Amino acid sequence: MNLAYFVIAFIVFHQVYSMNWLGQYANDCDFIGNDLESKILNNIDQCLMYCFTKPLCYHYTFRLSDKGCFLKSKNDISLGEAIFKYQHICGVKDRTKVCFEMIDYPPVPLSCNSYYNCVTGHYKFAKCDANKLFDPFLGECNSHSECYHGCRNSTDKVGIPLKTNQFYDCQANLIRNCSEGLSFDLKEKKCLKPILKNMFEYKKTYNFSNVLLAMRKVFEERLCFNWCIRVFYCKIIQYENNICKIFGESRNQSQYLNYNNVYFLRDK
């Protein structure tokens, strides 16, 4: 009897701790009890967003067979309480990380394949599939990312998206600032004085393959140029009505847009 109990306990332990947790959710798992309410939804993302809209929801399970979303209410739930259940997806919601939609997918500096997804004002931690890295400007996992914003080793130094005078020190696990007048160079991995080696080419109307990196309000066109020069991925700008938009060039899943008053960064 004791042997049978030991075997069952070992199987349950192995199933739980061998789950492939992709951040705060995993496949083939479930949480028992603490049911809040349920609803039929199209996919796991909708189930997560539904949980975020309910203040008492702290974890959830999505059943693939009938697309049933089950919200659960234990506020101190842990990943270790999940059990193995085939064709189910379960996850834990973290309400402590607040975000804004302006930068929807920030990377996780300690890992090239991890990132946060901003869902209804809160961050959801996630990981890319095997052999893929996260690209913060495309907002997707792909096999082409250079991983300038994730630590490759314990002594690495990596950039922070759109923060040109800051970098992440992987060894100290801290965000550090460059000295005044210096910018962090993503390739050289150190703070350097920016040198204007490039000029912009004006094109009144042009179709170009691109990805929008960011936009902000500035009151002079030159400030738009300066911003682009300081952002590693920036190749194209558009300045109109005091709004500066900076773009990168993308070959993968890009959209072709027709903008007036765009400037292209000339090749060095």
Q: Which ranges are low-confidence, i.e. pLDDT below 50, for 5 or more consecutive residues?
A: 5-17
**Average pLDDT reading:** 76
Bin the helical content.
Answer: 10-25%
Radius of gyration based on Cα positions: 23 Å
The biggest sheet, with number of strands, parallel, antiparallel or mixed sense and barrel status, is: 5 strands, antiparallel
Question: What are the secondary-structure elements, in order, as H or E?
Answer: HEEHEEEEEEEEEEEEEHEEE
SS field, number of helical segments: 3
CATH class of the domain at 3-92: Alpha Beta
Q: Give the overall form.
A: elongated
Annotated CATH architecture of the domain at 3-92:
3-Layer(bba) Sandwich
CATH homologous superfamily identity of the domain at 3-92: Hepatocyte Growth Factor
CATH-defined topology of the domain at 3-92: Hepatocyte Growth Factor
Features:
268 residues; mainly beta; Hepatocyte Growth Factor; five-stranded antiparallel beta sheet; four-stranded antiparallel beta barrel; 18 strands; 41% strand; Chitin-bd_dom_sf; Chitin-binding type-2 domain-containing protein; chitin binding; Pan_app
